[in-house]
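Journal club side-thread
Mid-discussion, someone asked how the predicted structure for our own chain would compare to the paper's figures. Pasting it here so we can look after the session.
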Amino acid sequence: IMSRIAGVLGNTADQQFYGTEAEKVKKQFNVLLLNAKTGIYKDGIDTDHSSLHANMFPMAFGMVPEKNRQAVSDFIKSRKMACSVYGSHFLLEAIYNANDAAYGLELLGSTRERSWYNMLRVGSTVSLEAWDNKYKPNQDWNHAWGAAPAHLIPRKFFGIEPLAPGFSKIRIKPQPATVLEASIKVPTISGDINASFMNRPGESFSLEVVIPANTIAEIWMPYMGKKSKLVLDGKEQKSVKRGAFVLINMGSGKHSVIVKNADR
């Protein structure tokens, strides 16, 4: 982050210095804590035990090597919601960074004891300090740190995040899983970002967006297979595949983007 700030300020020396230091920390973290046998992270140098927290934080902060991402993602999933309401911010961040939209949706909509649904079930109308009174009998019933979905739904489910200061460049990367339709409005300094989608899993995904003035956008659409077709504002476009997504760039204004599976 310090490197990025220095870059925005035009301080190239600090940008290079902090960038180099960050890479050193990342490399040493993985050398010391990534278990070569299991492919997941240990809790510490002198133990072979692996916890949810030891794995969700590296995934949330982009530290996991590509070859280990599946193993770390699978382990995170196996531990379910074994963290506090505060930890859930980073857990869901890790899950969506691993592009596991289905599991992210499962946790957001869960009705188990460790869920946002349970906060309603126990009688609160705002987010709690803990999942339930049994975990903290003297808990606060008005706690912002329990409100993870408030930023995870726009940032990760809808995938609307700034890529440059002041939202001058943005990314829209929906991960809908089985949700068939949704819409959202995200305010920025340049104006509102409006987005809505219609999802037919395996068949098509259509996205309507309004990009504010003086803003450019990366749109990441779900990949529909080798014969998928990308249509932007009524015209078929060449698609650029990026993992499980199709990438397209666009400028300000109202746009319609559709990805179709030609075999369906």
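Post-session note: Residues 12-33 form the longest helix (22 residues).
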